[in-house]
Amino acid sequence: MSRNKAVDQAGASAPHGEALRLEGVRRVYGAEGNQVTALDGVSVSLPAGSFTAVMGPSGSGKSTLLQCAAGLDRPTGGRVFVDGAELAGDNEAALTRFRRQRIGFVFQQFNLLPTLTVMQNVTLPLKLAGRKVDRRHARAILERVGLGERLDHLPAELSGGQQQRVAIARALVTRPRVVFGDEPTGALDTRSARDVLGLLQEAVRVYGQTVVMVTHDPVAASYADSVLFLADGRIVGHQPQPTAEAVAERMTHLADEVERQRAAAGANMAGANR
Ligand SMILES: Nc1ncnc2c1ncn2[C@@H]1O[C@H](COP(=O)(O)OP(=O)(O)O)[C@@H](O)[C@H]1O
Ligand SMILES: [Mg+2]
């Protein structure tokens, strides 16, 4: 494929500059007296055309981070910018519109609508956004994910890997600047996972999109350009050019470290309560 074609399909602007910026993002769940700080001041800047994996122990705030960055959840504090524009906070309709224009999201459990065909699932975001339903474009994306022969099938007639590829096509159909995936390979076998990771990588390398993916799998993380490590709602590390081995080792240390810090915090609390 020619370079120009790739740039055309990526959308109006070339993949330059900053795709995503978080400034001191906090998210506190629960009522006073019973609060959980899921994100404790996260600041990060991701360049356009980058592929970032987010890793961390269970409960470290990975999903909360993604949901806040994607406008699916509202931070308690801090600011989020996508493609240079601030995620508008006060108006639900504006936030939804913003999300539909600039953001794609892929879930672990695919979240396809069971009564809609493959083609209908993929064109739905265009309809919801009030955009022209370009079936040729939708078909081209479905061919790209290897499902050009399955347009009229229902999700239940597809394997898990195929369903996730439909979900990726659905996330890409609006040509979003940033595509988020929360454990997009978490429910897949190794081979389907590899297909999905290859498609996400292609979205970055060929189409200039920006991908942010939560995963607990070091092999999946090694498809990314860099890994952010999260612990207790904070970014505690960054690894460029990750290999599966290096990531696995870092995760092991991270789990030990978190346990030590929690034990120390517990001891301090006990001391303070004495
Ligand atoms: N809707 C919610 N209400 C209350 N607590 C929540 C909610 N969502 C997440 N949490 C808490 O916030 C923390 C981070 O959760 P999450 O972002 O799901 O972590 P991860 O995806 O890394 O496993 C956890 O302690 C979790 O229990
Ligand atoms: Mg999660």
UniProtKB/TrEMBL annotation:
Q: What are the protein's UniProt keywords? A: ATP-binding, Nucleotide-binding, Transport
Q: Which InterPro entries match?
A: AAA+_ATPase, ABC_transporter-like_ATP-bd, ABC_transporter-like_CS, ABC_transpr_LolD-like, MacB-like_ATP-bd, P-loop_NTPase
Residues forming the ABC transporter domain are 20-257
Cross-referenced CDD domains: ABC_MJ0796_LolCDE_FtsE
Q: Which domain of life is it from?
A: Bacteria
Which range is the signal sequence, renumbered to this chain? none
Q: Which SUPFAM superfamilies match?
A: P-loop containing nucleoside triphosphate hydrolases (SSF52540)
| One of the record's GO molecular function terms | ATP hydrolysis activity
A GO CC term assigned to this protein in UniProt: membrane protein complex
Q: What is this protein called?
A: ATP-binding cassette domain-containing protein
Q: Which organism is it from?
A: Actinomadura litoris
